[in-house]
Protein 1
Amino acid sequence: MRTPAHVPIVITTRGGTPECVHYGSIAVVDADGTLLAACGDARALNFARSALKPLQALPFVESGGMGRFSFTSHELALMCASHGGEAVHVAIVERMLDRIGARESDLQCGCHAPGYYHATDTPPPAGVRWRPVHHNCSGKHTGFLAYCRLFGHALAEYLALDSPLQTRIRNVVQAAACGDETACGIDGCSAPNYALPLARLAQVYARLAAGATPELAALAFAMSRHPDLVSGTGRTDLALMQTGRGDWVSKVGADGVQAIGVKSKGVGIAVRIADGNARALAVATVAVLEQLGLLADAAHTPLAKFARPAIRNHRGLEVGRIEPVFALPAVRL
């Protein structure tokens, strides 16, 4: 197993002095897989985590599941979502379950407090018992169940690595890796997940944004049309896709992964922060967009709060900042 050769990407300062250093890697790739710009180790394996969700939804779309269950782009967006557990997200997941004739108890994602509360600095209400539909991956899991209903597979086995669904997803991922090495592990929601070279993840998003197939075009449309469903209030993917105004398709992954496809430029971007720090990931992502000439002034966009934010103490005093420290090679997009 090779340790990735990550480099410093983001630092935090305190009183103007560097304090924390976040290492990582960046890859900018076109739809054919040509590496246009990179920082760190663009070829090392990285688990895609939730950035894998469009590929995990692809078999359902390819199999005609949308028409079979009368799903719209709203349902498809939820299948690709790491949603905030807000009322609109829960309502669509419940509608999906009803439409495929499944129950909430069929979901094997577990449950946690909705991400909405962390993203908005809002304390969750006392005494509430969260349900599986509030899990940020409940839309993806309902899509898994819908695929099983489509083919008559046992719902209870939908996460088994050798099940027909997970076998097909594995084949999709391996095809996306174009012969490069991949690795398998279990995600936080208990679904199989895959590591692939960072450059290949970027290529996936270049192809997704470009609508390289009708099915990928449907996924990209759903995600960019409904960023509030893919993400949620106060979240980075919502801010990214709002800023991109339909040109960018974006998906974050747990533990420091961000993937973006840019339709107008035919490129994909993948960012990895090695220690999984979310605030460093957001700063690095904004800086990549700036350095590529895709974002002129983050201060006047929904991304403003994620660009070089101040670090404040518990009295609200500014004590430092979070700053990008990488420079991508100049590239003409």
Protein 2
Amino acid sequence: MRIVPLLSLLLMAASACDQVTVPSRGDAGPDSLASLWESVDAGPTNFNAVSGSAADNVFIVGDQGTILHWDGTALLPEASGTTANLRAVAVWSDSLAYAVGEQGTILRRQDGVWSMDVPVTSAVLNAVWANDVAAAAVGEQGVALVFAGGVWTVVPNPRNDNYYAITDSNSGLQSVGSLGVVSHIDLPTKSITPSSLPGYTKLLAGATRSGAGAIFVGVEGGYFFWSAGSATKVEGLPSVFLRGVAVADGDVWVVGHEGFVAELPGGQNPTIVPTPDSRWLVGIYAASAADLWIVGRSGTILRGPPGVRGVGAGGVP
């Protein structure tokens, strides 16, 4: 496995909760596919999410207010101004990004500086979405927030499901979470309409746009293509807790617990891609099919995919 020093990053230790440390897998020898992932040594912090707007503008967030920024040359920490655990990040451009987390924390990055927005909830925020004029965040206890006109507003919700991911589609914003909930958030009216995936009452933890629709992933290999209010389950994935999903050049990548990574060409027929260890992988950003960023528990940052990126292929210096 290629270990890449991260200059002199001094990251704060993660809380004992939700931290998993396991030995490396036996298949990660110097000639194995697993060994070809580029791995960043960034200390023990739990990294919870990764997002970007381009190959040279990628953000990683984690526990204790940790924020890292990749500018195409170096992966460096940025001051967040908080010690709250950050659960999600959404990047619109070089000059605009949002991060959310525990204690209702909402951070906004403008012109290279992170600042804290006035909190409107104390609930844990697990996911955030943004464009150039609006944003939305969702979290536990059915909390949903909309940012428009410079103000965050709590969206009344008839249900108290926990939400874990949010994405857009041609039908607007969709948020997913516990018990297979899929809720539509309408930005102009600041309203939410909850529904559920038929026949799936397990937790949905990841979501991303795919064409005109979206892909949702969750517990026990749950993988669904959603479009215009209708969901189709894609079979073939093992019964693993899927936590993150990304689309690159028409192919879908999913990540999950126990170091799980799979590629689905055209969104079908998954191929499992070996990784160096069995830590929980919880987030993925695809700058392109040749440039994936994956983050997870206990300091996990991987860049790949192997065979496209890898030893000798460049990457994190």
Protein 3
Amino acid sequence: MLKKLFKHEFKTISKMGGLLVAVSGCLTLLAAAYLVSPLFSVFLNQSNEMSVGMTVVGVLLGVLGILSYVAMLVGVSFGFTIFLGVRFFRSMYSDEGYLTNTLPVKPMDLLIVKVVTAAVWMLIMNLILYGFMILLILIGTSRSLDMNFFDMLKSIRQLFGTLVDYFFADFRGDLKVSALLILLMVFVGPFAEIAIMFGSLTIGQLSWKNKGLTGILVYLGMRMAMGMVGGVASIAFNIIAARRIMEGTASLFLANGRYMVSLLISIAFGVVLFFISSHIVKNRLNLE
């Protein structure tokens, strides 16, 4: 039964996710086509011959284009997150919830399906959007430097390898911790974020009126609470970091410490809210 639920949930979310990826991909292709087109070459070749005013206008237009593209990516990510929240609420606590909650599965298993599927799709979406953005940056850089794209990638790889070898000799342990932290933030972060959002919406459904609005307010409250806890942790780390700097014992591990604490706070809130959600669905379900 769980396998069928995973398949159905993933397939349903993939419709919106696939549409947003397709839209983002088309816009990225258009931007990439401009970067490799003669129009961009003309701008690069003539930029040195332009007046100061025209150069400034060109730079501003370029910056505006970049900001617009980044805003599009942020909008796609934010819109997809909203879609996941709305879909979860409708499928669990609205009219559709009557059917969902009568399925022959445990409440915790049902929540696991919802959280895991949504988090996996959020991870996929984030990786794709980051990939689009990095691709455009690399194409624009290669065109600006008048280098072959693949030759530039080879140079970047060699430079990266040199930097890693240089820092690895003195910061072997710190680099491993930093790499692990990045992987955790990328692959574990979405699961914590989805669990927090779904848990907040589940608490909100206890209200007799305006359940969706209550869930949103609970979510905002959770984010504020996480911010307060993270702020206290940041102060503590800043004090420790200042002391280590004065002693000459600062390290990358210490610099990454506050990010690790932030991730641990998100995971802790996500786990607690997940079990609270399971308890509510099992014992205090209040469908509209």
